[in-house]
Specification:
With about 500 residues, this protein is mainly beta. The chain has 2 domains: about 210 residues, Immunoglobulin-like (Sandwich), CATH 2.60.40.1730; about 200 residues, Sandwich (Immunoglobulin-like). The protein contains 4 helices and 35 strands. The longest helix is centred in the last third of the chain and has 27 residues. Pathway: Protein modification; protein glycosylation. This is Dolichyl-diphosphooligosaccharide--protein glycosyltransferase subunit 1. It holds the Pfam family Ribophorin_I.
Length: about 500
């Protein structure tokens, strides 16, 4: 990271309170009678749905127009309560001005018992009456598919189904819109068909691995058209229900240690019969492609060293680590191939030179720049339901602040705690950040942490070790001077 970029990130840090306190993201609650005011219309809208990976990525490019007499800066997008629980990575940008950073986003609730919730987007500058602005909205849905059929043989091809609306659910009237769906292959055996318009007799229009619903004429606010697609996805549907990522900084050792603990599930089709190891071994020669997960690759930062890989049984030797000046790649193989409905918890870890991530500031503090999320990089993708990142700083570190390029809507809680380990006295200062619904598209997003490390704190541990050794020797010497012999009576 360049010096100017680091300083820019430092200036935008979010301060955290004293150890033990925390700040968490909260939803905004609106009156139960709330409905989004009809102050906008969607002049032109393109909804792009990608089902190419084992999570759904949606992009909405929309030209919004202020049809009210007063300037407006709040745009609402509706979701169901189920969608909100699986929604992640929500970001909004100006399509014509990339320098206008991500817009402020809030999840708002107007009725806790309603199935409709809203995401509120705040425009950086109120849009004047009659003016238009083109914005780009992107987000992800986790646990989006259902295998169809739900159970298959281990050598059969897996198909997934996804349901959505051909019209984008909107709080405003849409003058013109269309929905494009991108698939991992052109094998799409089933999809809902709709009457066409104009020269197009039937929707969707199929072009290779893409279906296009629309363009549609004007649709009122709240209009939906449920459709379903079924497509071939002969790859693992990997879902991490929980990832615990520890980043431990050592000044004396000049080292940053990483450890990640995964709870991994395969959410694809279950096996319709018992797993057959002989068939599995045979299929690797004539049918290498399978919906089973048999290998995971972890691209690490250059300079990473001393990797390890364990599961609940113990150390796993079926792994390979390749490291040179251009790359560091850890490849692991689970003890057994993972099929639909199977679970595999495991742990990986590695070390890296502190100089690759840690810098000292001119004012005397330190800045740590690490990836918020690393993890596997697979063609089929990886999704993470719950992520907890712990940055374990040296004992006595204070004035901890952080900034991250992970979408703010995905950060649920952050705070400073105390972590006690070997030879600690007061415990190590630990920044804990909890996030939800992340995907591997967000790999390498930065987490920048600054902190102060006073001289007294830096020499506390050596003094304690030295004092302990002196006390041990003195105690041993004193014990040696005690005469434990009993005098015999004369």
């Amino acid at each position: 990271m360049k010096t100017s970029a680091v300083l820019s990130a430092v200036l935008s840090f979010l301060s955290l309170a004293t150890p033990g306190s925390a700040k968490s993201s909260s939803r905004v609650t609106l009156p139960s009678t709330f409905t989004p005011p009809q102050v906008f219309k969607n002049a032109n809208l393109v909804h792009i749905i990608s089902v190419e990976k084992n999570y759904v990525k949606e992009n909405i490019n929309v030209a919004i127009e202020n049809i009210d007499k007063a300037p407006q800066d709040e745009y609402f997008l509706p979701f169901t309560a189920d969608q909100i629980s699986r929604l992640g990575g929500f970001e909004v940008k100006d399509r014509k001005d990339a320098s206008a950073g991500p817009f402020a986003v809030d999840v708002v609730e107007f009725d806790l018992e309603s199935d409709t919730q809203y995401v509120r987007i705040r425009l950086p500058t109120p849009l004047k009456s009659g003016a238009q602005q083109t914005i780009g909205i992107s987000y992800y849905f986790l646990k989006a598919y259902k295998p169809l059929p739900a159970s298959i043989k281990q050598e059969e091809i897996q198909f997934l189904a996804y349901s959505f609306s051909a019209y984008l659910p909107s709080a405003y009237t849409s003058t013109k819109q269309k929905t494009e769906v991108k698939f991992p292959s052109a094998t799409i055996p089933d999809y809902t068909k709709l009457p066409g318009s104009g020269d197009i007799k039937e929707f969707p229009v199929k072009q290779g691995s893409k279906l296009t619903y629309g363009p549609f004429a004007e649709k009122p606010a709240g209009a939906i058209e449920p459709v379903q697609v079924r497509f071939e996805f002969n790859k693992p549907v990997s879902h991490v229900s929980r990832l615990e990522r520890d980043i431990e900084v050592s000044h004396w050792g000049g080292n940053v240690a990483f450890e990640e603990r995964y709870t991994l599930y395969h959410r694809g089709a279950n096996l319709s019969s018992l797993f057959n190891r002989v068939k599995w071994q045979q299929s690797q020669y004539y049918q290498p492609l399978s919906h089973a997960l048999k290998e995971i690759k972890f691209p690490l930062r250059v300079g990473s060293a001393d990797p390890y890989y364990t599961d609940v049984i113990g150390n796993v030797s079926t792994s390979r680590f390749r490291s040179n000046k251009r790359e560091a790649l850890l490849e692991i193989k689970p003890r057994y191939p993972l099929f639909g409905g199977w679970k595999y918890p495991f742990t990986i870890g590695w070390n890296s030179d502190a100089k690759n991530f840690l810098r000292r500031l001119s004012g005397g503090g330190y800045v740590l720049n690490v990836p918020f999320l690393e993890g596997p990089k697979q063609p089929e993708g990886f999704e993470y339901e719950q992520v907890e990142v712990r940055v374990i700083l040296p004992e006595g570190a204070e004035n901890v602040k952080y900034s991250t390029s992970i979408p703010s809507s995905s950060i649920k809680e952050a705070g400073v705690e105390v972590h006690k380990t070997f030879l600690d006295t007061i415990g190590r200062t630990t920044l804990v950040i909890k996030a939800r619904n992340l995907v591997d598209d967000l790999r390498e997003r930065e987490l920048v942490v600054t902190y102060d490390y006073p001289l007294l704190a830096s020499i506390r541990k050596p003094l304690i070790v030295f004092g302990s050794m002196v006390a041990l020797f003195v105690g041993t010497w004193l014990l040696g001077t005690i005469d434990l012999k009993f005098a015999t009576a004369k």
